[in-house]
Amino acid sequence: MKESIKLLQDLRTDVKDYDLELYEAFGLEEYKNKQIKHLSGGTLQKLSAAIAFMFRPTLLILDEPTSSLDPSASILLKDKIRKVNNEGVTVLLTSHIMPEVDELADEVIFMLEGCVRYKGSVTELKNIQETPSLEKAVANIIKMEFSPCLI
Question: What is the pLDDT along the chain (151 residues), one digit of tens a residue?
């Protein structure tokens, strides 16, 4: 694993100050001599998250970021997402776990069958659907007999 991290760092000659906060918080140093193919799903997800943040991007695209993570690691990752977002990083998150989206997102785009069915703030969607739960608001859109494509 250590060689892979070093390779990525060597490829990114434009970055000299690496963000290793998640690498350290996840305790990945313990696995530095393991081959990536021998890591568990959760450890591989931690490594992927640590790498995503390592180069201090201005845009982060995260697909199901807490998938396979234990609760402690999930909390660490969500805290990191909020932290970088508060520092001005744009975070694009894809997830089907609505409580997680509700916790992390300000704006949502809900797609169903390749069609955008809602685009706007989380708060507005819950208000429109008259529910405090994003999960219920999205379920209501799914149940609608006719929900037009917005885009």
Answer: 888 888 888 888 887 788 999 999 999 999 999 999 999 999 999 999 999 999 999 999 999 999 999 999 999 999 999 999 999 999 999 999 999 999 999 999 999 888 999 999 999 999 999 999 999 999 999 988 676 788 7
Q: What is the pTM of this model?
A: 0.88
Owner of token pair 């785009």: 109
What is the SS3 assignment for 94?
strand
Contact 58, 15 (CB under 8 A): no
Rounded distance between C-alpha atoms, residue 118 and residue 8, angstroms: 37
Domains of the chain are 1-93 (3.40.50.300), 95-151 (no CATH)
